[in-house]
Amino acid sequence: MQILNGKEAAQAIKDSLKIKVAQLASQGKEVPHLAAILVGNNGASETYVAAKVKACEEVGFKSTLIRAEENITAQKLLETIRELNSDPDVDGILVQLPLPKHISEDEVINAIDPGKDVDGFHPSNVGRMVLGQSTFVPATPYGIMLLLEHYKVETKGKHAVVIGRSNIVGRPMSILLSGNSNPGNCTVTLCHSHTPNLKELCLEADIIVAALGRAEFVTAHMVKDGAVVIDVGITRVEDATKKSGFKLKGDVAYDEVAPKCSFITPVPGGVGPMTIAALMKNTFKSCAQKHYEEAEGE
Amino acid sequence: MQILNGKEAAQAIKDSLKIKVAQLASQGKEVPHLAAILVGNNGASETYVAAKVKACEEVGFKSTLIRAEENITAQKLLETIRELNSDPDVDGILVQLPLPKHISEDEVINAIDPGKDVDGFHPSNVGRMVLGQSTFVPATPYGIMLLLEHYKVETKGKHAVVIGRSNIVGRPMSILLSGNSNPGNCTVTLCHSHTPNLKELCLEADIIVAALGRAEFVTAHMVKDGAVVIDVGITRVEDATKKSGFKLKGDVAYDEVAPKCSFITPVPGGVGPMTIAALMKNTFKSCAQKHYEEAEGE
Lengths: 298, 298
Hints:
2 copies of one chain form a homodimer. Chain A contains 10 helices and 11 strands. Helices cover about 40% and strands about 15% of the residues of chain A. Chain A has 2 domains: about 30-115, Leucine Dehydrogenase, chain A, domain 1 (Rossmann fold); about 140-270, Rossmann fold (3-Layer(aba) Sandwich), CATH 3.40.50. With about 300 residues, chain A is an alpha/beta fold. The interface between A and B is large, with 37 and 37 residues. Strand 6 of chain A pairs antiparallel with strand 6 of chain B, so a sheet runs across the interface.
């Protein structure tokens, strides 16, 4: 059994970006600039955004954190996005989800300039991903693909079972793994809340991607020997022995599943750091594209 | 065994559209207008476009067929599309595929106004489909969903195996069947040329969608009793006894498979007519949307 160490793989990606950013700076060019919008005071969202801002610092990106009150109007939020869209200094825009219930997430995401949508949630970027065109792939699935690539996990011809059909993880993961690419070329079964025989399907899987958001849902009796297990879940479970009052649990019962696996991601330290590294890669890509277009226009 | 009669279901859709178009006309409103671009002289393309134009006549739409020589430049083709984009009288634009090799299909499709892309091939429409937002669903998968709906085929919780991952059929079909909708809510396995154990996977399927384009590929020993079989294939096979010199074969060996099925589509007369009915529905939707926006603007 080998651990797919997301911390290490993410560090390798960030180290490589850091060098490229330093090159840009030494050429007098603008470095990538990520603008993050955080609405309200959700604890998990605070943590995620802070980690993204910290990663920007690490690799040498500029970052701007825009905070809005929980009761901000949709109109005001859309205005902020339009300002960022038209700001030539901003390369990437992300709106930390979830948003308060009075605001339509679709409307907000659809307002982001697709060329700055480094989360890859805009319909035209999702469509480009499906069609295999150049795009920003959503950070979590992109991070998983980078992790598989980093550890040279063979995927071609394998049967992957993806549990969960969310727009930000399960669905794009099923699309990427079944694409004609490397990693990719898996036969993919996409499972969800209406799948009656999940255990049996998982037992057939060479690769399991657990992205349903239920702590320790995937147990040893659902996993065949030698499987690759990717754990996307991250649930806060109460734990009085911790200072924070909680501990983080994945969707996989790691202790009992890991011994059966050829490869497995830990939680934390697996998919999480890769998500942030993928976001950094997308932001760099947006900036590089801008410099390329500027050079073409000269 | 019940035949999923695409001719009948398509006729019901066209009859319903015909009434709605007559209502528009009686209110003095513009009726839907489909513009089709046909490049070169591919025999199958000629047939398909002719069938689409004929369907427009049947339901009372306006249609314009624009023919271009095989050697048209990409620039000239893009110009034609831009003219149609800005023509307020045109509700739907379709470019019959395949295009000659010197022209990028992606570039051409991406140039179509997404609001007139009634084939549903533009990235932003593909993305909206994935995200469950209002869109034009590609005609063939949309037609299949309408056929399942017409015959009230139960799909929720069923295991669907889709063979073929093309952008115009297999991929969108896998997305639609696994969506939280009705028809939908299937567990979906997407198979393709790198799937090693296709026979075994098909044998587990409650629903098989064959969209790989190989005549009579799906045989009786791949299908379990009671399965629903949707045959998207349409291959011209030489046949000296026919005046045309060929006959049409589906991807399913119909004669041996049909007796095992609960439902099956014939070829021809199954998915083909539904594709055209779905295109008509998309074109009507585009026109209705235009009238709605005009009324809102008054």
